[in-house]
Amino acid sequence: MSIFNKILAVVEPEEIQQKSLKRAITIAQKTGASVTAFLSIYDFSYEMTTMLSVDERETMRQAVVDDRTDWLAKLAEPIAESTSISIDVKVVWHNRPYESILYEVIDNSYDLIVKGTQQHDSLKSVIFTPTDWHLIRKSPVPVLLVKEHDWPENGNIIAAVDVGTQDEEHQSLNINITRYANHFATLLNGHVNLVNSYPGTPVNIAIEIPEFDPVGYTESVKKHHLDSMDKHARQHAIQPERCFVEEGLPEDIIPQIAGKIDAELVIMGTVGRSGITAALIGNTAEHVIDSLNCDVLALKPDKFECPMQR
């Protein structure tokens, strides 16, 4: 049985090619999941028409929603006909797109959000919008951020894990990440690659403590991560040649390996840090995502609670 039964594809009205809808359909064809094309719209000028009554303003807003619903239905119709996948359409009026997306997910029990990323024409790089970051941090279900390309068979999928941790929550997340990677590998007839980074020797300790052995310390840390990776890989039937354990920061190592093996998809966990903590400390996953030029599936820990629960 598939882990995806209901998929929400977030539509971007200014995009000619709807990457999210295309990717959602690809997954639905392989899993039998239902697909809803979702559009959140808002125009502040409709709120500022003071000469109109509340009812008249509501009528104007509804007219815009109806117009966009017709547009979205016409957009989805040929895609549905060519793929034999039924596509529901939904348009809502909301001044915060990420909130409308998350409320739709919570209220209707979706399993996956698919959203297209924007391409910077001159820099040839992916741009992540505030809505993208809000979804990554707050969504209770996996978020798949996609770019404009096909998913070829026999492609490489990266499961970014932290096998050296003793923390139960992170260990559970490692299992979940690898589980999703294996699921996508089955869907795409692809290959799962495990990537793990470990920290180098703390420079301040090497300087402040003369008797500290930095070489021995580094070798010990490396051996711990290699042994942990071997154990994790054997538990999930992943071959040793598809396991990467490198010294360095995740935001450096994961994009480096992704580029080296030409990965189609990177799956990783996010802790959903927000507020002042996120501003001061940052989120490792977000630094990694910002450096990748491929699709990214962001997962939350099992005990994560969406801050927007109704």
Q: Concise description?
A:
The protein has 310 residues and is of the alpha/beta class. It is 45% helix and 21% strand. Strand 8, helix 5 (168-188) and strand 9 form a beta-alpha-beta unit.
Keywords, separated by commas or semicolons:
Rossmann fold, alpha/beta, 10-stranded mixed sheet, two-stranded antiparallel ribbon, 310 residues, 12 strands, 2 domains
Radius of gyration: 22 Å
Global mean pLDDT: 85
CATH class of the largest domain: Alpha Beta
Task: Tell me the β content.
Answer: 15-25%
The percent range for helix content is 40-55%
What is the architecture of the largest domain at the second tier of CATH? Answer: 3-Layer(aba) Sandwich
Count of the separate structural domains: 2
Could you say which overall geometry the principal axes of the C-alpha atoms support?
Answer: elongated
Stretches where pLDDT is under 50 for at least 5 consecutive residues are 276-282
Number of DSSP helical runs: 10
Strand order of the largest sheet: 3-2-1-4-7-12-11-8-9-10
Please specify the SSE layout and strand pairing:
Elements lengths: L5 E5 L8 H13 L2 E8 L12 H30 L3 E7 L3 H12 L3 E5 L1 E3 L4 E3 L2 H9 L4 E4 L9 E5 L7 H21 L2 E8 L4 H6 L5 H22 L7 E5 L2 H11 L2 E7 L5 H7 L2 H7 L4 E5 L11
Helix pairs in contact: 3-4, 8-10
